[in-house]
C-alpha cells in the first residue's frame, strides 16, 4: 500500500481554472520525491490534496489506502505534514521556540515531550541561536527553517515541502538539502517536495514527477528522468 496515492485526480477552482487534470501520483514508503514543473503547473494544488486542505472535484486521494474523511482528517494531518511556500502563512507565535511548539502542543502531547520535540527540531534545522527571537523579524531563509522545524516537530511520516529552497542563499540551500536527504533513512519519513532547482534534484530525490498544465508529463526514477542517452 502506498502512503499517498491519487487516481485521476481533478480539481477545478471556483474561477473555472482546471488546476489538476487527471493526476495519478504515488508516494511509496521511505522515498524522496521531487515534483518539477513551471509556475502554475498545479504543484501546490496537488499538495493541498494530500492532507485534505482541498477536496477533489473528481477522482480519488488515498492516504495509507484510505480516502480522507471528517473522521480521519485529524490523524491524516498528523501523518502528512505540509510546509507551505510562504513561511508567513504558518508562523504566528511571538518567539521561534513557541512557534515550533505550537504544532506538537496541538497534538495534545505532554509538555515534556513537546520540549523534547522542540529541542530536536531546533538542532535539526540549526536554529539554536534564534530560539527566543521574534519570527517576523527573521530573514526569509530563517523563517523558512522555522516553518520547517514546526512541521518536523509534529513528526509526520510524510513531509511535504512546497519550494523549500526558494529564497535561501546557496549555503542555506545546501544545508537544507543535506538535512532533507537524511530523513528517509534516519526517521523512515517520505519526503515530497517541489522545486525549480532542477540541478539539485539528483542529489536528493529517488523519484521524480514532472507536471505541466495540471497533468503529469513525466515520471520515473532520477536515473530515468535525468539520463540523456
Ligand atoms: P504551482 O504550485 O505549480 O505554481 P498552483 O497549484 O499554485 O501551481 O496553480 C495551478 C493553477 O491554479 C494556476 O493556473 C493558478 O493560477 C491556479 N490557482 C491557484 N490557486 C488558485 C486559487 N486559489 N483560485 C483560483 N485559481 C488558483
Ligand atoms: P530516540 O527517540 O530513541 O531518541 P530517534 O532516532 O527515534 O531516537 O529520534 C531521534 C530524535 O529525532 C528524537 O529526539 C525524536 O524526537 C526526533 N525524531 C524522531 N522521528 C522523527 C521524525 N519523523 N521527524 C522529526 N523528528 C523525529
Shape: globular
**Could you give the distance between the termini?**
33 Å
Count, helices? 8
Uncertain segments: none
Query: What pattern of helices and strands is seen along the backbone?
Result: EEEHEEHEHHHEHEHEEH
Question: Strand fraction band?
Answer: 25-35%
Structural class: alpha/beta
Using DSSP, what is the number of strands? 10
Ligands in the model, by name, code or SMILES, are:
adenosine-5'-diphosphate
Mean pLDDT: 93
Largest sheet properties: 6 strands, mixed
What does this structure look like?
The structure is a single chain. With 229 residues, this protein is α/β, with parallel strands linked by helices. It contains 8 helices and 10 strands. It has helices at 43-47, 73-79, 96-106, 111-124, 140-152, 170-187, 201-204, 222-226; strands at 4-12, 18-27, 32-36, 58-63, 66-67, 80-83, 158-162, 190-194, 207-212, 215-221. The longest helix is centred in the C-terminal third of the chain and has 18 residues, at 170-187. 40% of the residues are buried. The model has no long low-confidence stretch (mean pLDDT 93). Bound molecules: adenosine-5'-diphosphate (2 copies). Residues 13, 15, 17, 19, 37, 39-45 line the site of one adenosine-5'-diphosphate.
Amino acid at each position: 500500500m502506498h502512503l499517498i496515492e491519487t487516481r485521476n485526480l481533478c480539481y477545478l477552482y471556483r474561477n473555472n481554472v482546471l488546476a489538476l487534470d487527471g493526476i495519478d501520483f504515488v508516494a511509496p514508503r521511505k522515498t524522496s520525491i521531487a515534483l518539477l514543473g513551471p509556475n502554475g503547473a498545479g504543484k501546490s494544488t496537488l499538495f493541498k490534496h494530500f492532507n485534505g486542505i482541498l477536496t477533489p472535484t473528481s477522482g480519488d486521494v488515498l492516504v495509507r489506502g484510505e480516502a480522507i474523511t471528517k473522521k480521519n482528517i485529524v490523524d491524516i494531518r498528523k501523518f502528512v505534514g505540509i510546509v507551505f511556500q510562504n513561511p508567513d502563512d504558518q508562523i504566528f507565535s511571538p518567539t521561534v521556540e513557541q512557534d515550533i511548539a505550537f504544532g506538537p502542543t496541538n497534538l495534545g502531547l505532554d509538555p515534556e515531550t513537546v520540549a523534547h520535540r522542540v529541542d530536536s527540531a531546533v538542532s535539526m534545522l540549526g536554529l539554536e541561536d534564534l530560539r527566543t527571537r521574534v519570527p517576523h523579524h527573521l530573514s526569509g531563509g530563517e523563517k523558512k527553517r522555522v516553518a520547517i522545524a514546526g512541521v518536523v516537530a509534529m513528526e509526520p511520516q510524510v513531509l511535504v515541502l512546497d519550494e523549500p529552497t526558494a529564497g535561501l542563499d546557496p549555503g542555506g540551500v545546501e544545508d537544507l538539502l543535506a538535512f532533507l536527504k537524511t530523513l528517509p533513512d534516519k526517521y523512515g519519513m517520505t519526503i515530497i517536495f517541489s522545486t525549480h532547482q532542477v540541478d539539485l534534484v539528483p542529489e536528493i530525490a529517488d523519484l521524480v514527477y514532472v507536471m505541466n498544465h495540471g497533468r503529469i508529463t513525466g515520471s520515473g526514477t532520477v536515473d530515468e528522468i535525468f539520463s540523456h542517452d
